[in-house]
Write a structure and sequence with these properties.
With 232 residues, the chain is an alpha+beta fold. It has two domains: 100 residues, NAD(P)-binding Rossmann-like Domain (Rossmann fold), CATH 3.40.50.720; 122 residues, Jelly Rolls, CATH 2.60.120. Strands 4, 5, 6, 7, 8 and 9 form a six-stranded antiparallel beta sheet that branches. Strands 1-2-3 form a three-stranded parallel beta sheet, with helices on one face. α3 runs parallel beside α4.
């Protein structure tokens, strides 16, 4: 681990508690059996947490005799609900929030949101009071770029397509260090074509089916805010 981090100019941690302390946001991608203790520890430190699926579950009592194929589904469900409750109770006591990383790109609500964006000039406007905003979304072959305008000024152009986009994957971005006040943020889908083939070539990838890469959509699942939604 030390050799790996040294070559990449990263910091190696001796324990999870130290790592969580140094982070602003925790993305839990560990085996599901570890989700609950990591999430609760992070929330106790007022950290925001993204949890990969499955959210949690019941994975046995640690004994060699446990076999999930024969364990009571009803009891497993009870244990799982209890785990969920402990995590949500920890969230209620924390300044941090839980965000669930599920693949919602084909969910009816997300498809409807995409339809509305396309019919209304491809913009999404958010009014909020706080110091950071971002989005939890999906990158992939048919993803494009978005322009982020904050309080009438173009803040950034963010690409949701990179050299790994031969498949769809969940991702997020955050624009932080904003003044802690009321903001109006406009996300604008930039539908003009760009050279995806050149981007893929960075990893030696090619467009096996060019039609899969034709569109330039933004598959947004959740808006992330460090603050609170406000009315204009």
């Amino acid at each position: 681990m030390e050799e790996y981090t040294r070559l990449r100019n990263l910091k190696a941690y001796n324990n999870l508690d130290e790592l969580i302390t140094d982070c602003d946001l925790i993305h839990v991608c560990t085996p599901p059996v570890t989700h609950e203790p990591i999430v609760i520890t992070a929330l106790q430190k007022a950290k925001n947490v993204i949890i990969e699926k499955p959210f949690t579950g019941y994975f046995g009592d640690g004994s060699d005799e446990f076999n999930g194929d024969y364990f009571s589904r009803e009891k497993g469900f009870e244990h799982t609900n209890a785990s969920i409750k402990r995590m949500l109770d920890a969230e209620k006591k924390s300044e941090g929030s839980i965000m669930y990383a599920e693949y919602w790109v084909y969910a009816p609500a997300i498809q409807k949101e995409r339809e509305i964006l396309e019919k209304t000039g491809e913009t999404l406007t958010i009014h909020f009071k706080g110091k950071a905003i971002g989005a939890y979304d999906v990158m992939g072959p048919d993803a494009g770029r978005i322009v982020v305008e904050i309080d009438g000024i173009v803040k950034d152009t963010i690409s949701r397509f990179d050299e790994y986009c031969t498949y769809r994957r969940m991702n997020y971005f955050v624009i932080d260090n904003l003044e802690n006040k009321d903001h109006t943020v406009v996300f604008r889908v930039f539908s003009d074509p760009f050279d995806k083939e050149v981007i893929l070539s960075k990893r030696g990838e090619i467009m096996k089916n060019p039609l899969d890469f034709k569109e330039n959509y933004w598959y947004v699942g959740k808006i992330l805010i460090d603050g609170e939604i406000s009315s204009k």
